[in-house]
């Protein structure tokens, strides 16, 4: 059993795709398939259920995944401990982020890379619930997420920033000249909404529920650029975080009467917080 086999196995198990695992590991897909097949042969078990459309972990694969993550984490920690320059942080930093949450992402990643060039950075975008689970299980070292509460069992939580949600419309929309708008008024017009995996969608849905109104989501999209195009055309309005609305100079902000606060923070496992993860949290502080 080789470390490279375990690395490829963990990548395939977390991505549930040999193609994405190969892209993540910077190798061809056949290398992933060959090494995982050799691992299965050595262990005498099947690690994946394979079909023409997808792969999934077998029960043996689930057992190995937890153990493999621990082995690779121990190897990284040992390398850090015995590195010739022990002041230099090494190893892997797996970061998770959900769409629309991380203000200043590129600047933070650039600063971290400059401060810790020996750390291998990997970033994955995923729905918020997947990120909390991945950090708890060890698949990710840290994640930048909208915060659900001040404390999370088993997790280190550090708030990074907060802002309020705002309505945004095109310059010719009837609401463009308004000083504010209520959620009840927004519920009476066509809106752009994000798909259910977005934390922003969950937060706006809760806001409308508290206002006891149901929004009319005429357009459901999965990216901010498409939402902005629809809104700028005058077809609909949208509820966004302030920093997302600021990305589009022609969008007109119309403050909400109701306050919907968007709090973003970084989370890490209390038990598995590596030196690389702790340094990353310090960079964001």
UniProtKB/TrEMBL annotation:
Tagged with keyword Lipid metabolism: no
Any single Gene Ontology cellular-component annotation: protein-DNA complex
Record-linked InterPro entries: LysR_HTH_N, LysR_subst-bd, WH-like_DNA-bd_sf, WH_DNA-bd_sf
GO-annotated molecular function: DNA binding; DNA-binding transcription factor activity
Domain HTH lysR-type intervals: 1-58
A UniProt-annotated Pfam family: LysR_substrate
UniProt keyword annotations, A-Z: DNA-binding, Transcription, Transcription regulation
PANTHER family: HTH-TYPE TRANSCRIPTIONAL REGULATOR CYNR, TRANSCRIPTIONAL DUAL REGULATOR HCAR-RELATED
Family listed: Belongs to the LysR transcriptional regulatory family.
Protein name (Swiss-Prot/TrEMBL): HTH lysR-type domain-containing protein
Species whose genome carries this gene: Cryobacterium arcticum
Record lineage: Bacteria, Bacillati, Actinomycetota, Actinomycetes, Micrococcales
